[in-house]
Task: inverse folding
């Protein structure tokens, strides 16, 4: 129980605790499994097969939009739709986007800031660099 609690609190800050590089979505599905006590339990709650959940975690298949809402409910909000669809949640669920009322009466939808996109790009480049370094180390050994 203590390990589970530690993982739940540190999974966002320590994404490299898993043996492979996982995307934000994959980590979110993994976190959902931890919250509900396993892949088979999450699969049962969602009405899908365990291999389907495993494919979401491995990144072989994306989490379908209807299941994002179901996961959010199954985890009581510990894993949100925004976590599961970080790149397009504001297009799918515009009601979740923050709306700002301008002085001229127009409403502007505030999408995720540019820095978040730049941060994801930086993380992807860093992961690619680490992977190529590992390949180079294996080839030279």
Result:
């Amino acid at each position: 129980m203590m390990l589970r609690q530690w993982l739940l609190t540190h999974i966002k800050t320590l994404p490299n605790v898993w043996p492979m590089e996982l995307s934000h979505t994959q980590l979110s599905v993994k976190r959902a499994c931890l919250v509900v006590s396993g892949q088979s339990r999450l699969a049962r709650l969602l009405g899908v097969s365990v291999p389907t959940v495993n494919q979401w975690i491995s990144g072989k298949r994306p989490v379908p939009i209807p299941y994002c809402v179901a996961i959010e409910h199954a985890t009581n909000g510990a894993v949100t739709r925004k976590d599961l669809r970080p790149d397009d949640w504001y297009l799918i669920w515009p009601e979740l986007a923050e709306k700002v009322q301008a002085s001229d009466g127009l409403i502007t939808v505030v999408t995720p800031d540019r820095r978040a996109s730049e941060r994801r790009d930086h993380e992807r480049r860093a992961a690619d660099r680490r992977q190529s370094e590992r390949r180079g180390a294996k080839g030279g050994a």
Summary: The chain has two domains: 2-110, 111-141. Residues 114-140 form the longest helix (27 residues). The chain has a mean pLDDT of 78.
